[in-house]
Sequence to fold (189 residues):
Amino acid sequence: MDLREWRILSSRMVVNNQWCKVRQDEIELPNGKIIDDYFINIRLDVALILPITSNQEIIFVRQYRHGAGEILLELPAGTFDAQLEDPQVAALRELREETGYITKTTIPLGILYDNPVKDSNKIYLFLAQDATKAGQQKLDPTEEIEVILIPVSKVMEKIATGEINVAGTVSAIFMGLNYLNKLHLTHKI
Fold:
């Protein structure tokens, strides 16, 4: 199959403020069909970190998410401008601000697209081991965050029951625990 990219005929910003940017594209599909109202959400990238303490507990944050209309259990994360800040620096900043924890080492786990159908951003995933409490949270005025420590051994059960159900968080957990399992297997050989 000869897959080809869509051709952008024209673009215009239909919403352009600091909190929301939406671009309307007129595109031509490879089969020649024209779509004049394809909307793209221009979003900042996200740095997400899977922090594990020396007691083998994962540090989660619980907070209200208005888009979902629910209080959700997630890993620390936040947006950043990839042209101005390194993803790893952003992940460490979010860990410190949202939880009061720090870590000396981080391991990149991967880069995922959030919603490549309509959103422009990526999620940069990191693993942090031996995270330690270093101070208080430094929350934004719009943030209300509860820090929750969950033993690594209980996390898969919480995913299975739907208590942990945010896609980026679930992905980071699977990728991080897979990395650690491979690391432990390698050391046993």
